[in-house]
Structures
1.
Amino acid sequence: KQEVTQIPAALSVPEGENLVLNCSFTDSAIYNLQWFRQDPGKGLTSLLLIQSSQREQTSGRLNASLDKSSGRSTLYIAASQPGDSATYLCAVTMNRDDKIIFGKGTRLHILP
Amino acid sequence: DTAVSQTPKYLVTQMGNDKSIKCEQNLGHDTMYWYKQDSKKFLKIMFSYNNKELIINETVPNRFSPKSPDKAHLNLHINSLELGDSAVYFCASSQNQWPGAFFGQGTRLTVV
């Protein structure tokens, strides 16, 4: 059974700092891994998608890496801004049944 | 016990038909969502209802119409189906904010 874990559950950092969010999963038979953000009262916003054959993806100040063999992914946010404050979730799509399994998220707060 | 259930799991239909996908959650959540997973497995929000009220309505064709008869149900009706509508559609529910959102297993829609 696939389990997705995100540590820490909450994180506060001063504006301008670089930070890393962690995601781990127990079953490496994934099709892809996605990182999302969710703002209060809103649905998910897709940030980055990494196919199982890829090692990383970049979009602006965001960089996501994937190490499938060790069951780990990281989301790197450079030069953090108050607008980055949100809950960040990672999710894996399983090969066999398209099922998407989410972690519980990391609640990020960027201090102005 | 299934938390978020979608029916049907698979749906194959011809272009031009009208079809519905049903979603029910037994978690007592007040917010429900419909997401579309495209061919690259990227998840995109379509609609969100909070206490039966539409709160998120992304840019989707008017042929897509969500209906929420009560807090526990959010159905997706699609008129005049087109080939490009083929995708996996996910229903989800949450209590106001993450964490705690649960996703259904998805409905694979194939338009031929």
Note: Chain A touches chain B through 24 residues (CB under 8 Å).
2.
Amino acid sequence: EAQVTQNPRYLITVTGKKLTVTCSQNMNHEYMSWYRQDPGLGLRQIYYSMNVEVTDKGDVPEGYKVSRKEKRNFPLILESPSPNQTSLYFCASRRQTSGKAGEQYFGPGTRLTVT
Amino acid sequence: QQPVQSPQAVILREGEDAVINCSSSKALYSVHWYRQKHGEAPVFLMILLKGGEQKGHEKISASFNEKKQQSSLYLTASQLSYSGTYFCGTVTGANNLFFGTGTRLTVIP
């Protein structure tokens, strides 16, 4: 089954404690991306990756890091989480060929609370 | 670079029609539409490419006017299952996908 998986699904942590949210896709997609969703603000892009070892900032990258060492994995790292990073996070992937963006698949989401 | 969606929210009775608009300040290569049910991930509805095409998906269709950098999503004869938040996503020259703030659609019996 084609899917994007995220772990953990729910996380409560304290300010400053480093954490990683994993994301994996089994569709051999070139493009992967992280979004955060907050009430009234829609889906805002944090980072994206066009392929292995190619990453770039989205609209709200401050406080986040990513890496793309393998095509299937795209972890999101919060080195020192703060309460304003409390949010619902989605990982997504899609095929990206000949400059055309295909259908984007989303993971189930990770609800993060930073106290 | 977020596209602008309108309206922000709409309430319909079953069987009524609705239009959701999406506009961008940048030239667009394509427009994506997604629907998100409460507590779930967004789900793909359709992509519209440059060329002013119109696409349909059951009773949900969309148009794309590349000159005006606008797209509209049309929901006809709405059903209870159409309730959710609809997002448009726009792709510009950088091939990146940016989502609007969403339109919350509620269909009541």
Note: Chain A has no helices and 13 strands.
